[in-house]
Amino acid sequence: MLACAVILLSQNHVFCRYHMINTSNTGMTLDRQLFDELYGVQPQAITWMKPIWNEAGTTILDFQFVYSNQEGLNFFNLTKEAHDGMLLSASTTVNDSLRKTVMEELTHVYLKGDVIKTNVYNAALNKYARVMRTRLRDGVLTVVQERTEENRIIQELEEKSRQLEEQKLLLDNILKNSSNGISVSQVFRNESGTVVDALTIMANDAAVRYIGLPREVYLTKRATEIEPAIMGSPYYQACIRTLETGEAFVMRYDMQSTGKWLELTVSKLDEDHLIQIFTDVTPIRDAEVKREQLVQELRRSNESLEEFTRAASHDLKEPIRKIHFFTERLKAAMGDRLSETEGHLLQRIEIASARMNLLVDDLLAYAQLNSGALQREEIDLHQKFKTILSDLELMISEKEAVVELSHLPTITGYRRQLQQLFQNLVSNALKYSRPGVKPLIQITSEKLTGAASGMDVSPEDREKPFYLFTVKDNGVGFEQQYADRIFQVFTRLHGNSEYQGTGVGLAIAKKVVDNHGGYISAESAPG
Fold it and tell me: Domain 375-515, what fold?
């Protein structure tokens, strides 16, 4: 008869007592029944193994599975038949590295009598367990508490904790290195739920710098202590609306203590907390002030230009009118006494004064294009062209010109300026016609991108939609090398003796196109 240790397991304690078991062949069945009665109902996996010695009985070579309760069979994924008598060295329930560790532990426990407790990961079974090994007479009893699910939960918690720590570190770095001020405020309510005060509970260095208060004051003093009148301010009312509606608001204000203009965005975190983000907009504010100053200067410049235009209309044209008036008086007074030479001289004076009058008109028209007082409006260009052709009807008739007009779109622009643009282009086509050839003028349009227009557009305009208007004629043309010059003021490629003009018309056309954010070019060949 041998003594057998009976181990009753609870969650926190191990209780032991001893029974005698019969090791005779006829007694093994009874002993197994006794093990089943003692351990079969335990929730832990329990296994008893005996050592296998060498022939001399001096060295343990292996361990043999003798008994496992049902939880043990389940844990190792074994049937009773496969289990009974299986050697540790031949077991498929452990991988090689773990097999070596288990062999060392079993041998140590058996020879030294120590109790070993350890946490194990069984890669062959993909299971985690808490293992206790103790000697029980001529074998080793192993108690296995599976912790796979518990370990999974622990790993998930550790992973979440790691992620939270990373997020906290990231947030700390953002708060520390952000050029924007960031702070969180907690509101305090009275018994009726009305907000009566607030306290900044978190602020990064930028926020402290922008506010201009010592950190110990900013984070310890309530809002009413720092600014007693704040509860009646528009800022307070806006914060209350954000707490009630959840809608963020943005405001700018002059932080006089730091000399900076700040843009503040306030958002709701929860019922009692608001987050504020401060942005230093001092450079933007300075630029806006500078822009306003430039606008005012431009407005004054335009007013001065308008005054000049009015003065020029009177002061510049008045001598011209007098020249014309006195020339007519002189011709009438002289009557038949004028010689042919004198009459020719007076005619040249009249032509020169008329050209001067036209030049003044063109210069005034060009100057007025700089005025910013006009309002954009929708313009039906097809109808507008009909008006232009009606105005040029006499010139078209005299030249026996043919004008082919395709359907033109409705666009947004400055009505008077667009009329000047297209009237100048058509009148130029009529003016510079070839002698003995009836002018043919073709006007078309198409919608395309800046890149598809073939013009030298800016990079930002390459993908923008444009209308391409083409005015094509069969006139005298010019050398293509002068294409850029024809849009300059007073530039003429043909002399006055051949064609009348001031050299301002195409400059006006280019100015109108510039005012509409467009581009203009000319392509030609002489003849």
Answer: Heat Shock Protein 90 (3.30.565)
Residue 396 CB-half CA count within 13 A: 14
3-class SS shares of the chain: helix, strand, coil, % to 5: 45, 25, 25
| C-alpha distances out from residue 250 to 261, 279, 289, Å | 13, 11, 20
Residue with structure tokens 């006055």?
496
Could you give the C-alpha distances from 519 to 257, 380, 424, 515, 522, in angstroms and in order?
Answer: 50, 20, 16, 10, 11
Given 3.40.50.1970, 3.30.450.20, 3.30.499.10, 3.40.50.1360, which CATH number is that of 2-146? 3.30.450.20
Selection from 165, 185, 207 nearest residue 274 by Cα? 185
Distance CA 472, CA 444 (A): 9
Least confident of 144-148, 277-281, 355-359: 355-359
The pLDDT, as a whole number, for residue 256 is: 66
Helix locations, 196-273, DSSP H: 205-211, 215-218, 223-226, 234-245
Query: Using CA atoms, how far apart are residues 180 and 278, in angstroms rounded to an integer?
Result: 5
**Residue 481 exposed, middle or buried by CB count within 10 Å (0-12, 13-18, 19+):** exposed
Strand order in the sheet with 440-449: 402-405, 440-449, 465-473
Q: What is the pLDDT of residues 119-130, one digit of tens each?
A: 999 988 899 999
* pLDDT at residue 243, as a whole number: 92
At 8 the pLDDT is: 42
Tokens of 243: 């707490």
The owner of tokens 């708060």 is 175
Whole-number pLDDT of residue 26: 37
What is the third-level CATH fold of 178-280? Beta-Lactamase (3.30.450)
The amino acid present at 276, given as its one-letter code, is Q
Instruction: Give DSSP secondary structure letters for 143-170.
Output: EEEE-HHHHHHHHHHHHHHHHHHHHHHH
| DSSP state string for 343-378 | HHHHHHHHHHHHHHHHHHHHHHHHHHTT------EE
Distance CA 8, CA 167 (A): 47
